[in-house]
Amino acid sequence: MNRSNAKLLIALIICGVPAFSFAQVQEIRDYLINVTIGVRTDVPEKYHANVVDVTLEEPGFYRMIPKLLYNSGDDQLNESCFFTVLHQDSTVSTAVDSNAGPYKVIPDDPGPRHTAFRDAGLFYFLAGTNTIQMHHYSLIADQFPQFLNGSINGPESIKIVDTLKIVAEPRADALLNMRSNPPRRRPVNGVLSGLAYPGESIYYELIVKNHYLNVIRFAQLELVVSPFLATQSFTLEPSFIEEEYYLWDLPHIDPGDSLVIGFYGNLADRMQEGYTPLVNRGFLRVPNEADSTNNKAESLDYAYAASHGGPPDEKTDMAIRLFAKSDSFRVFGADTAFFVSSGEKIIVGLAALNNGVNPAHDVQVRYVNPPLLFVQQAVPQPSTVLGDTLIWNFSSIDAGLYQNMRVETLLEMPGISDSLVIPRAFVSAIDDTAMNNNAAEDSVFIFRRSADFKGLTDVIKTALWTDRDGDGLLTSGDLI
């Protein structure tokens, strides 16, 4: 069937003749079984019955719905059965929506003599000839007795009359993911992001996964690439390209399998100064998609160019220091332990140092305020506040110099148990050459001013945040 002319149909096929091709999108055709077919328990060869052969060009999942005869006006009970599918390679499929071990039993339907269409389950059919087989429930009643409604005596027959419906289950559920492998990752606006410089490349992958029971057929993948990226080396060539738009007609994807398409996005040798977002967006179209909410994906990386439009050419080494001080402390030899209780303040001093021999550009400092502490004031004013994180951005810090920050916090948790609060800070800069000194933390002990702290008050002093030694950094030597 030509896809451009295909209609989206729910396929309902009533089978009783040899050959018919089931496709993902197909017309409705009806077939009749011209004889009554049944199974019974009094003759061994009648325990099973081959109902009909179905020949398929495409494999897939199909639901079987037989029209069953119930003649419970006599002494028969347990007019129940189950179905299997015998494939051409001698393998057997049982219902995926089983209710008795591997089988789906159609329970008895007591009442006056009558016929009714019943759901026999969802089955997988291979390409080629498949034989639908019917079995009497008595064969497995000892192992799965939950559907018994009395003893099994007499012929105990159950019959299909006139019709067996085979309903195609074309529903699909595909998931689209997109991932990138940039040359480096750096914090940008407080978020760790992929980062590339002019002249560099980023490798991208589009991942399409089949989450459902059916083969995905006739799917299309669309991709809109950032205008700042020039693509090359696709692992699967697009079916159509127009400027930044790419389209793939995807091959079949089996249940549980994934299709990965990789490509490179290349940056120009010269770009505008600063950060440039690189956004790629993908969308997946699948016929009879059951859930399209997971059919979209997006990647976000950044390009960074120096003032001359090229990559930064000055290496640097940024470091961060953090000191947390409270008004109460105790000296243990050469060590000082700081304490705080409800209603008291903790002053956090931060210093971002350029230990390198070149200026550091686009410096970012992130301070993570711990639980239980509430920020009262920050100097200088943060560039951004994201939840419990304060972010400062500085265009540059010259070699051998530093940038100080101060955060004033308050503990407002009366009755809290003894514990530690740990403020943390992180620093980043373009082309930082050493990452092991880019994080720092300190701790302050919370206590509840009780008899458990005998002797503490007689050695408590007042801690002042004063640059006593004139080095510009808050250290223990600045205490008076």
Overall pLDDT metric: 81
The end-to-end span amounts to 87 Å
- The portion of residues assigned to helices is under 10%
Number of strands: 35
Q: Per the principal axes of the C-alpha atoms, what is the gross shape?
A: elongated
Sheet with the most strands, sense and barrel status: 7 strands, mixed
Instruction: Classify the beta-strand content into a percent band.
Output: over 45%
Low-confidence stretches: 1-32, 450-468, 472-480
Major beta sheet, strand line-up: 13-14-22-21-16-19-18
Which class of secondary structure composition applies to the elements? mainly beta
Number of helices: 0
The value of Rg in angstroms is 36 Å
Structural overview:
The chain is mainly β and 480 residues long. The protein contains no helices and 35 strands. The chain has strands at residues 12-14, 37-39, 48-56, 60-70, 81-87, 92-93, 105-106, 114-117, 121-125, 128-136, 158-168, 174-181, 184-188, 191-196, 201-210, 220-224, 230-232, 240-242, 245-249, 258-266, 274-285, 296-305, 318-326, 328-332, 335-340, 345-354, 360-368, 373-379, 384-386, 389-397, 402-411, 419-421, 424-428, 439-441, 444-446. The strands form 7 sheets. The chain has a 7-stranded mixed β-sheet, with no helix packed on it.
